Each structure stands twice: as C-alpha cells, then as structure tokens.
UniProtKB/TrEMBL annotation:
It comes from Marinomonas gallaica. Keywords: Bacterial microcompartment, Cobalamin, Cobalt, Lyase. The basic unit is a heterodimer which dimerizes to form tetramers. The heterotetramers trimerize; 6 large subunits form a core ring with 6 small subunits projecting outwards. The lineage of its organism: Bacteria, Pseudomonadati, Pseudomonadota, Gammaproteobacteria, Oceanospirillales. One of its GO terms (molecular function) is cobalamin binding. Its main location: other. Belongs to the EutB family. This is Ethanolamine ammonia-lyase large subunit. Its EC number is 4.3.1.7. It is found in: Bacterial microcompartment. It comes from the Bacteria. Pfam families: EutB (PF06751). Catalyzes the deamination of various vicinal amino-alcohols to oxo compounds. Allows this organism to utilize ethanolamine as the sole source of nitrogen and carbon in the presence of vitamin B12.
C-alpha cells in the first residue's frame, strides 16, 4: 500500500505516491501474480496497482542479493542450507551482474541458448528462479522453458527434445489387481506409460506396496516393456520394501520447499539420501540410474502452516532444490490437486502450471505436470486442454494418463490416455525412443508413430481373454 515510512527497505515512488515493502520476502509475495492461496495466507498484494509496483521494484533487485538476504534463515531450515551450501559460484558468474529484470531479458535473448542454460543451472537458486518468474508473461515462461533441455534415464530416455512422455496412472479404489491390469492394458494401447507406470495405492502400507510392485514388475518383464514402475507410497515404506526384496524401480516422495513442510510429510534430506542409495544398490536400470520420483504442488507449505509467510510459488520453487539434490528421473507438479483454496480457477491453475514448469526446467529438473483440478474448483476440462497444450509447446517432460481423465480413487480430474495422443499428434511429439520402438514392435503403433493400429496386439490377446474369463 502507499506510504512514506522509511522503515520499508524497498520503496518505489510513482505519481507522487510511495509504495513500501518491508523486506525481500514481502516484496516477493506482493509481486506474485494473483492467486487464492496467497490471499488466504494474507501475503498477497492488496491491489493490482500494488502488485504491478512490486513487480517493477523486484525487477531492479540484483540477483546477488538472494545469496545474502535469505528468505528463511540459514540456521532455521535445512533447505536454505542446501541451497546456499551447494550454490555454484562459477556457474553463477555468467549472470551474477544482472538484476532480476536483466535476468529476464537475458533469458529471452539469443544469448541464452540451451547449452548456456545448462551451464548456469547450478548457479541459479530457487529464489532467483521464482523472482524472475514473477515478472514474466506466460509466453515468456513458455519460450524459456522450451530452451531448457533436461535428459534423464532408467529403462528408457526421458526429456529429449521433440518427445513427450506420460505416466500411466492405473489407480483403483480397492487396489483390485484385475482392475489395475485392465487400466494398464488400456493405457498401453494408447501409447501411454513411457515415463512410468505409477500407482497411488488405496491402502498405503508395506505389504500392499510390495504386492503392487510385484504385479507391475511381472507385466513389464513379461511384455518386455522399456519402462519403469512406481508405487507412490511414503519413502520409508519403499525403503522397507527394498529390504524385503521387492522389485523397486523408482522411489517416490511428495516434497515441499521448507524443512517444516517436509517434517509434516515425515521425512528429511537424510531419509531421501538413504532411499536413493538403497534403490541404486538394486541396479535395476538398463540405460540410466535416475531412481527418484518426486511430486510437488503450490500450496503444500501453506496447508502445513510451514510457509514462513512466503508466497506459495516461492515455496514451490524451493522444493526444486530438494529434487535437484537427488537426481530424479521424474518430477511433476500436481498443479490443481490441492484445491481452489490455493488455486481458485482455470486461470490461476494455468499460470501456476507454467510457473512451476519454468522454474524447475531452469533449475535443471525433468519436470512434468499433472494437469488437473478438483471438482469444486472453478475450472473445467477445456482449461486443462489449454494448459496441457501450452505445457507441451513449452517442452514439458511428461503428463498423466488416466482412464477417461477421471481418477476414481483420488477423486480429481486430470488428463486421459487419448489426451496424450492428441498433443503428440498436434505438435509432432514422440514417446521416449525406446518405448516408441516397443510400440512399433508390438504393433500398437503402425509405421507412422502417430497412428494407432486399433487392433489388440497378439501379445495382449491371451491376457485380455484371461482377465475377461476371471470376471
């Protein structure tokens, strides 16, 4: 709000009025594009005018300040310590002379090539990424994201330019194995599942996780599918599954951008390190050793009352420091899942999805997006079509594939198997190369990689008849 009080560290005068911001954290929150979560937390700009002034003020802040003026104190938060202790000064030297506004201009220029963007990754902190994101238009976020190439691998190669992968998500409200198997078959027939076949268990315990892991491993091995599986159970459960000899491909965990958020989730950085080492010891990857899968989402820190009065987009970006530490195969923001209390409508969900994808790719993460909304949000499937298309243009690593776009276990709306086919056909994008070859070998794809054969492959006929016979 307008004031003349010199206690404000950042001030901007326009038209005879002076707008003040108490500190860097306050400036960041006020500069954030409007969303319901920040209004709920009481940190949002009070008016569009104040937001615009905050963005103008933020544009003049030197990037170096984010290494000195820490938004959460070093001694209070292990994520802050991770960010500062692992900051690469050499990589930062390329951009260290820039302000936030100058960084935006540089990112949009021809100087910021894919090779150069890769070189500076470890010099960019999450707070720098969040700050520049706040002063960028949607098209800016798309253009820069498109230039950020991030490749990972386990049983196939994820993130190559010109490719779009999918997570096949065969959730079932009772974890019925036949129902899950039917969804997996359906997804494979629509060329879904190259990122991962990943199940959110309805019953979350070690025994059930092992049961689901064994079932997916049997399918992958029997049909020689070049992909990986994951049961999205708590990281400590997965460690126990490994100890019991379960066929664990990827270790999953939802992560947040503050230590207090992750404490509320029941883990810390040491837990993730232990899990990664356990998964690496299994040596189950064939073309790479990226064994971690993380999910994030704006609003998680606020919902845990662990946001330290920061805006939710900045907290979200800080989660990417956690992810980057452990070299994941996949990361995705479950962008509209937490609900309209945090992202109210289709416009806010769209903006958040583009922000998250941009910040993660800039920081060097293999970022995908669960393009989704809950049934009480002011959004519909057309909003999701728009966001999915924009993300695919921006080089998104992967999206979700769920029967009919409707997750009948988690009770939210996301993207379907045929949505992935649409965006691949519309933009000329291919699945992961190893998976693409498998699709052609099994005659799911014709020689034209964007054309389905619309006939059950011989390899699946026996299994399908058996499933139908059992019911």
């Amino acid at each position: 709000m307008a004031n003349d009080n010199t206690q404000y560290r950042f001030r901007h005068t326009m038209g005879g009025r002076t707008f003040g911001f108490k500190n860097l954290a306050d400036l960041m929150t006020k500069a954030t594009p409007a969303r319901s979560g920040d209004r709920l937390a009481g940190v949002a700009a009070e008016t569009a005018e104040e937001r615009a002034i905050a963005q103008m003020t933020l544009a003049d802040v030197p990037l170096k300040l984010f290494l000195e003026d820490l938004l959460i104190p070093y001694e209070d938060d292990e994520i802050t310590r991770l960010i500062i202790d692992e900051h690469d000064k050499g990589a930062f030297s390329v951009i260290s002379h820039l302000t936030v506004g100058g960084f935006r201009d540089w990112l949009l220029s021809d100087l910021a090539t894919p090779i150069t963007l890769e070189r500076i990754r470890l010099g960019v902190t999450p707070e720098m990424a969040a700050a520049v994101c706040k002063i960028m238009r949607n098209q800016d976020l798309i253009l820069v994201s498109k230039k950020c190439h991030v490749k990972t691998a386990f049983r196939n190669t994820i993130g190559l330019p010109g490719h779009l992968s999918t997570r096949l998500q065969p959730n079932h409200p009772t974890d019925d194995l036949t129902g899950i198997a039917a969804s997996i078959l359906d997804g494979l027939m629509y060329a879904n599942g190259d990122a991962v076949i990943g199940i959110n268990p309805a019953t979350d315990n070690v025994a059930q996780a092992c049961r689901l892991m064994n079932m997916m491993d049997e399918v992958i091995q029997h049909y020689e599918i070049p992909t990986q599986s994951c049961v999205l159970t708590h990281v400590t459960n997965t460690i126990e599954c490994i100890e019991q000899g379960a066929p664990v491909d990827l270790v999953f965990q939802s992560i947040g951008g503050t230590q207090a958020t992750n404490d509320s989730f029941g883990f810390n950085l040491a837990t993730l390190a232990e899990a990664r080492e356990a998964a690496l010891s299994l040596k189950r990857g064939t073309v790479g050793d990226n064994v971690m899968y993380f999910e994030t989402g704006q609003g998680s820190s606020l919902s845990a009352n662990a946001h330290h009065n920061l805006d939710q987009q900045t907290c979200e970006a800080r989660a990417y420091a956690v992810a980057r530490k452990f070299k994941p195969l996949l990361v995705n923001t479950v962008v509209g899942f937490i609900g309209p209390e945090y992202l109210f409508d289709g416009k806010e969900i769209t903006r958040a999805g583009l922000e998250d994808h941009f910040c993660a790719k800039l920081l060097g993460l293999p970022m995908g997006c669960d393009v989704c909304y809950t049934n009480h949000a002011q959004a519909d499937q057309n909003d999701m079509d728009n966001l999915m298309t924009l993300l695919a243009v921006a080089g998104c690593t992967f999206i979700m594939g769920i029967p009919g776009s409707d997750d009948i276990m988690l009770n939210y709306q996301t993207t379907s198997f045929h949505d992935a086919m649409y965006v691949r056909q519309a933009l000329g994008l291919s699945p992961a190369p190893e998976f693409d070859q498998w699709l052609k070998h099994t005659n799911i794809f014709s020689d034209d990689q964007f054309t389905l054969n619309h006939k059950i492959p011989a390899a699946f006929e026996t299994s399908l008849k058996r499933m139908l016979g059992d019911h």
